[in-house]
Amino acid sequence: MFFVRVLWVIKMEIKYDSRLVENVVVEIIRRKEKEGDYELSEYYHRIADQIYDAPKKDREDEFKKLHLSIFMRLGLNEVINEVVGEFPQLSKIDEMVILEANTTEEADLLVSEKGQKRIVIKLPPEGFLSSHLLSRFMRHELMHISDILDEEFGYKKEKFSNSLANEIVIKEKYKLLWDIYVDSRLISCGKETIADKSLRYKEFNKIFQKIPEEYRERVFNSLWNSKKLTHNEILSLSKEPRKLLERSGISSKGILLRGTPCPLCGFPTYNWFENLSEFRDVIAAIKEDFPEWDQDDGACDRCVELYSLQVRGF
Amino acid sequence: MPEVYNWQLGRKMKFPFQEAYPKKQFAFVFNLNRCIACQTCTMACKSTWTFSKGQEFMWWNNVETKPYGGYPQHWDIKLLKMLDESHKKMGRKPIWKSEMEKGTARPYGVYEGLTIFEALPGESTPMGFTPSEVALGYLPGDKEWRFPNIFEDSPYGPLGKRNAFVHSKGTSLPEHEHWFFYLPRLCNHCTYPACLAACPRKAIYKREEDGIVLIDQKRCRGYKKCVEACPYKKPMFRSATRVSEKCIACYPRIEGKDPLSNGKPMETRCMTACVGKIRIQGLVDIDSNGVWKKDPQNPIYFLVHVEKVALPLYPQFGTLPNGYYIPPRWVPRKYLYQMFGPGVDEAIERYTAPSRDLLGLLQLFRTTQKIIFKFEVQKTGEKIYETTINGKKWAMYNDRVIGYDKDGEIVVDTKVLEPIFERKQKDQFGYYKHYNSI
Q1: Does A42 touch chain B (CB under 8 A)?
Q2: Residue B434 falls within a domain, yes or no?
């Protein structure tokens, strides 16, 4: 691991994973060679040859230094420095560690027992091959980190559900809603990020299928134009899609969302009973057990079947 | 670029160096019908050669599950795709002319497609050393080296449907609808090694005495060109020393310098550790023109050139690999043609109803650690089994099978029917003695 101090006011140190640095440098050399540009390759091997001739025990460290020096010479750290400079909130951070991503890119904030704050960003080596993509990714991730640091946002790590399956579903929604909140603000400030409005809408369309199609765009636009959201709000919207409708000024009364719980049995259902108003005796029987219930609240197929049998004297 | 003769392709092909052949060649045969992926070979190699710092992801010997597995991940699929693209660009077709000839010069016919040495768009040498562009290849990333047997036991199934099976009544030979097989791999110690050709430092060399391909650890400067060029992805870069390493074919054992060997050449660690008895390894004599000298009593020669049951892995790559495989019988032929070339049908037919000599030789797999230079099947055994295979009568005889070492001394003497030892002698307490107590 190597240290590089950022030039601007914040005291944060940025550390780069030596494996990542090496893979980036080697890949750039390879690409240049393929294009017929051997200048960097010759420089690299000239220095490397000297290291090979030196005692073996220092070899690993010397190579780390060589890779980092080329990494800096190519200005690959500058993109990161520039994007970091756009986020004054990061002055509260003590260090940033940039690691090689094994699977997907991600960012996280870690706080030590002594209260030291560290941002960990995982990037694949290919991420450094396009400064344009790198800056967009960094900006998006650092906006998330800024939210985490913002006390008003009120971020806290918590269990979203006791059921693992439910936890995954809620997390997926939470992640998308937060991404929408992050990207919409960046784009409204004229900054580039990893996804534009149409791409986020596409994702929203896929994940929030519970919301009837005719309302989806309106709900999404309301989210995209949100000026202020908090962790608790996003979480509540992830858990209860009905609230997304309400927040967009749409009355959820009479809208039966797929996969939401039946008000009678409490089990999530995709089969709401249609034309319930035609079965007055069933409605009456339900109301006997659930006086607060209204036919607009809906009932699942199974519950209506049960009450139908009851009405028929079974 | 000079031209060299590749007998596996039945024609001359481009290679960066002039023809030069060893006196003997390290070669091996794996029977894929018997491999159970126990990874004993993998661990034998690992515990002998690659247990140090920087070798954590280094598996000189590995066993992968085909069709999806591979170490590094998708190594063959990636290169086949690249080769395919080159064919399209150059307006060529990767076809084999099927006229096979007897003898060693053209046993699989003629390959009319491009090898990895011929599939490059152009040649350029702007630097003072051999450029990476001597062979079509790619450098796998860290992610691709993570799993030595990813997709273990994952069978081929209907396209686009996970965990789905198309058959309802089971599946049977000659081709299974759902299939996978294990492919053990190590360096093929190729006759035309792409790693050697690509090394800008000329740090890789092929030994005259046994054809083993080695990387000179002092000359290597970690260019990784060998990793990029080897189609089988068997040279591996070691981050701790910053040099590349590869299988050394346990050369002290081949030289007879292992303390156990008493000066007699021994098979490698991965070969001798094989519990499935799928492996046999040896040395074959090479003629001045690069083809194998006629030696039907040499087990490897017999399997490759007489019975033709053992086939090279991806011969179309053009490196003339010296690892040979008896193809798995249940796998769809189209897949096997791609992997082993046009000799597949004949190999499977002969393996399914083996001759007395072949059946005898198959019993010698893993009966001794010494290299068998010559084998003999004495066809004096009684008939012990009779059946019909593919409409033809076939009989098994309990013949005597003998293996000889380098000096012609018997190192194994067995029979087709594996001998059974019944322990009868009781100790003083009336219990049967455990001679092989663990």
Answers
A1: yes
A2: no
| Radius of gyration of chain A, Cα coordinates, nearest whole angstrom | 27
Residues A85-98: what's their mean pLDDT?
Answer: 89
Domain ranges of chain A: 2-149, 164-247, 260-311
Contacts of A59 in chain B (CB under 8 A): 241-242
Tens digit of pLDDT for each residue in B392-418? Answer: 999 999 999 999 999 999 999 999 998
Question: Could A51 and B242 be called an inter-chain contact, meaning their C-beta atoms sit closer than 8 Å?
Answer: yes
Is a pLDDT exceeding 90 seen at residue A254?
no
Number of independent structural domains in chain B: 1
User: Touching check for A102 and chain B: CB below 8 Å?
Assistant: yes
| Contact flag B127-A51 (C-beta cutoff 8 Å) | no
Q: What is the pLDDT of residues A219-239, one digit of tens each?
A: 999 999 998 999 999 999 998
- pLDDT tens digits for A261-304? 888 998 988 888 988 888 999 999 999 999 888 888 889 999 99
CA distance B126 to B120: 16
Q: Which long-range contacts (CB under 8 A, 24 or more apart) does A156-159 make?
A: A156/A231
In a domain, B273, yes or no: yes
Instruction: Give kind and range of the element (H or E) at residue A107.
Output: strand A106-111
Q: Which of residues 205-234 of B touch A (CB under 8 A)?
A: 221-224
Residues of chain B with pLDDT under 70: 99-104, 121-132, 168, 423, 433-438
Domain harbouring B149, CATH code: 3.30.70.20
Residue B119 lies in a domain: yes
pLDDT value of residue B436:
59
Q: Per this entry, what is the length of chain A?
A: 314
Nearest chain A Cα to B124, which residue? A36
The verdict on a CB contact (< 8 Å) between B221 and A45 is yes
Structural domain range at position B330: 3-350
